[in-house]
Every structure is written in structure tokens, then in C-alpha cells.
């Protein structure tokens, strides 16, 4: 077998090769991570680290989120009473569905844990006359939510706080809403979360716990620090099966009164959000960055496919805090909570969202 010829490169050939290799980052220190990547420090799910994670996810820019979410500024699963309903009608229906499940009435105290841009607080105050405390650890959300409350003339009924739910001490409340917030808590902290809400709720009153869940065969979420979702969109976020949420609520002393699955609704919601971004793409890029806009479009398109493919779901769990007498206001048969939501989906918002 003939010997292979020996490859020899002179200095000029090596220099010609070195330029492209340097551009590709083969030599020298690794490239800096892109600005869209989350970089968190500290103990996982500590107050400080949670604030950093929430800031990465929500403080992209309020104007960017207006493009993404539409005028409702609701970043959680909508409720489509009929397929022709618009996203705005479906979000209005979802807000009303939550209020009906909580049986809100004038003068009742509601705490909205993870209140976002204040849409539920505005709806509960304007439509039901409830006194609402909204808490969020996103500075951008708190600033805009406070402004929306003032513009709606509801400052006497609604207070928005830049505060962690673990720091709320002025209970008990007549109702608690936790909409799309438990995903940020983490499995290790969920028992503490449920116990805290149990303390904040009056006996015989209601909690509406609305959370994304992994598919029934998926088991607990094991966050992968190298995954796209964790690195770029949802740092420290964890999704648990519905059974885990129910068990932890019951362990904290709640009685689960009703569970409603909204998986197909969230698929429709995510597709509507993707459509919003694509129809206003140049504006979305201008308000964030080309990389950030691409990250969110990809994330939401992938989320729509995950909901459609049964890999994840979303559920509303209505739980009560049993009173000393065992009495509560729940009727003996399951109410048609959707009836008012369907009607409300086609009504003006009266300053809500």
C-alpha cells in the first residue's frame, strides 16, 4: 500500500486558514452569550432570583407586549366560547369566567397573585365592584397596571403592588386568583405557595388556581438549563402534572371543588399571539430587537404545537378553604359558569381590558 503524501502548509497558507477560523471562534475565548439569553444568579426561587427571572420574561417592554397580546394585555389562556370569537372577546370571556367562579360581589376583597398588567383587577372592580389587590414582581407590569387603574378611574377599588406573594401579610381575603403564576414557583416551592394562599383566604371562600400542566405521562418537569425555553424565555419555569397541583393544594388544606381543562383554548390563544407578532413584525422588532422578536415568535409557535399535541395542558382548579362549620357558597350542582362568559365576550369592557 503506497504511503500517503505528507501534507505541508507554508506560513502563507496557514495565515489564509487562520482568518476564517478566528471569525468562527475556533481559537480564543468562547463568544459572549447573546443579549436575549437569561443569566441568573443566586439561590433558585429565592426572592432575588425570582425577581430576575420574572424581569427577563416580562420586562421585555410594555409596548412590545401590547403588540404581542393585543389591547387586552392578558398573558394567559383565553376562553373561546365560540370559534369565531376574536382574541379580545375570548380574553374578556376568560376574565369573566374567573370572576364568576370566584363568585365575586361588591365589597369583596380579591387578591390577584401575579396580576400582570392589571386586566383581571380592572375587570373585577369595574364589573363586580370588588376591592382588588394586585401583586407582581415585574416593575414594568406594576407601572403600567397602576397607570391603567388610574386612567379607568378605579384607584379607590384597585391597588397594584410591586410585591412578592410571599410578602403579602394583610389577609385574609374573600377570594384569591392565581392565573398563570404557579409555573414560576417551582416544584420545591409549591407546598409553600399553597400554604401561603391557604393562610391568606377566609374560611369557606375560594381560590382559582389556573396553571399550565405537563401531559399526564410526562411526570415532574426537570428544567434543563441548556434548553431553549430556559435559556431564552422562561428561566426557572417549571411545569407539573395536574395531579401534582391538586395533591399540593389538598395537602395545604384546600378542598378541590372543580377542575376545568382549557388545553384547546390555549392552542388557539398562542396562535392568535403569533399572528399578532407576524402582522406587526417590523414594530415588534423595533420595540425589542430582531433576536428577541424571533425568540418570542418561535416560543409561542412551539407552545401552540405543544398544546395541540397534548404534550401540555392548562387547567383551572377551583378550591375552597373549608370553614369551621363546613359551610360554603357552592351550589349542589355544577353551575354553568360559561353562560355569562359567552354573553360578556360580546359586551364593552367598561374600562377593563
UniProtKB/TrEMBL annotation:
Residues 325-353 are annotated as: Disordered. Pfam families: CMAS. GO terms for molecular function: methyltransferase activity. GO terms for biological process: lipid biosynthetic process; methylation. It comes from the Bacteria. Transmembrane segments: none annotated. CDD domains: AdoMet_MTases. Keywords: Lipid metabolism, Methyltransferase, S-adenosyl-L-methionine, Transferase. Residues 326-353 have a biased composition (Basic and acidic residues). Belongs to the CFA/CMAS family. This is Cyclopropane-fatty-acyl-phospholipid synthase. It comes from Geodermatophilus africanus.
